[in-house]
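ESCALATION

Customer reports they have been waiting on this structure for their group meeting. Please prioritize. Original submission:
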Amino acid sequence: MIEDVSPRQVWEALMSDPDAVLCDVRTNAEWSFVGLPELSDTGKQPVLIQWQVFPAMQPNPKFLDALSAAHVGHEAHVYFICRSGARSMAAAQAAKAVGYKHVYNVKDGFEGPADPRGHRGTVAGWKAEGLPWRQG
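Update from on-call: job pushed to the front of the queue and completed.
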């Protein structure tokens, strides 16, 4: 079972654990147009690996190879984030299945669910928590 961790807890882990990694599994279009977690205060950068490839949104067959190529070790605490928590959960499950020991899903993702007006980023998730981010 993969644990859901709040964005605030993830931030605290990134600040306190030198081996903690944030892996953003959204698409390159989302990174460019929606924004990215800004981790400079942690001394780190997010690891950017698409779980699904834009625009067709087919699964990325090289996802696990890219995770390894990014030098993310099997003992690291890896926090997977997407828009709302679904793709990141699938990515965390895939990583766990190949031996990553400490994988987590960032609850509500980067933007969280839509508010009553249909806008994301205001109800829950990384942006709504007021955590650092930047426009791609």
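Sent to customer with the following note: The first strand starts at residue 3 and ends at 5.
Escalation resolved.
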